[in-house]
Amino acid sequence: MSATKRDNLIVGLDIGTTKICAIVGNVTEDGIDIVGIGTSPSSGLRKGVVINIESTVASIRKAIDEAELMAGCEIKSVYAGIAGGHIKGINSQGVIAIKNREVAQEDVRRVIDAAKAIAIPMDREVIHILPQEFIIDEQDGIREPLGMSGVRLEAKVHIVTGAVASAQNIVKSCNRAGLDVADIVLEQLASSEAVLSADEKELGVCLVDIGGGTTDIAIFAEGAIKYTSVLSLGGNHLTNDIAVGLRTPMAEAEKIKQKYGCCLSALVGKDDKIEVPSVGGRKPRELSRNVLCEILGPRVEEMFTLVNREIIKSGLEDSIASGVVITGGSSILEGMPELAEQIFNLPVRRGLPQRIGGLVDVVNSPVYATGVGLIVYGSRNFGAREFPTSKSEDSIFSNAVRRMKTWFREFF
């Protein structure tokens, strides 16, 4: 692959609880072409947080090797996803006086600095500052304030923070696998880049990314992100329920969930049967598929009820006119959109990666929404931040400061 072509390659690394997925995208004038993909089972994470660095590094290397082989390139730098119950999102506001009466880049930087001047505990780090809107002399709804005249400039932003240790462990795992981390990106923000349309974000939409260990929520309205939240509940809980309820090993429970799983009894035929392997060398049993449905239904219902509670807590339930988009590996489960519609009382669709070329048929699944989204995010914010491969722990802290100084390149 030529050097010029290689310069345009962006790699998204989705470090998930059940799988680690590396996707290579080539940024062209027409958009993004997916040119390589590698996946590996993940065993070093729990509920989206690294609990075993060695296992995580081994899984990352395996996924990267596979992606390098398919894309025919060497991967040096990645955009890594972050999730977990430690993620918190808050809305903030800043105000400044405009000295020269016309908004310059420096004014935008100052007003964001004012908005981010909130008390953040020492053990937490700012991951994203996402501008929602700017207000000039009480004129609201301004997306791009540069060059406009006024006396007073306000900014409304959404600040996403995470535990410093969790972010450090992701960077450390990537570094040990021989990779630089170009940026750490909130997973639901990445997924939204891949599966949501501009119209949906404008009209108001709730994205629910159901992974193995976490369910990530992001609410958009008027084209900007208004609320983010992470629930420590995901597809692994469904697998665990099947293993306990049907008394079968976890690996077999996962296969049964993927092959026969359904969370809505109306979609299951009365005569549908499934074969369930037993534990300890006992003979397999044959059960009605309805039994499986009775196990999964209540858990999925509980999951969506908790999501609904988050939507109500955000106070934006009236703003999501275009409905709910569910994505992530667990959203493939049969009957999920139908059950979600009953609980949210809103239109629901499954989110697949959109507006991409190349190996579209390979990544055309909710499983790859975050990985593809990381590439889209990376292509928009290319070179905005960087975590160099450094063995010293302090570099991550100094990086946090440097990232804050260069944050505005993300948007302007």
Automatic annotation (TrEMBL):
Protein keywords: Cell cycle, Cell division, Cell membrane, Membrane
GO biological process, one term: FtsZ-dependent cytokinesis
Main location: membrane
SUPFAM superfamilies given in the database record: Actin-like ATPase domain (SSF53067)
UniProt-annotated location(s): Cell membrane
UniProt cross-references to CDD domains, sorted A to Z: ASKHA_NBD_FtsA
Transmembrane segments: none
Topology term for the membrane: Peripheral membrane protein
CC per GO annotation: cell division site; cytoplasmic side of plasma membrane
Ranges where the SHS2 domain occurs: 10-195
Stored Pfam families: FtsA, SHS2_FTSA
InterPro entries membership: ATPase_NBD (IPR043129), Cell_div_FtsA (IPR020823), FtsA/MreB (IPR050696), SHS2_FtsA (IPR003494)
Family: Belongs to the FtsA/MreB family.
HAMAP family: FtsA
Subunit structure as annotated in this protein's UniProt entry: Self-interacts. Interacts with FtsZ.
Cited function: Cell division protein that is involved in the assembly of the Z ring. May serve as a membrane anchor for the Z ring.
Full protein name: Cell division protein FtsA
Biological source species: Oryzomonas rubra
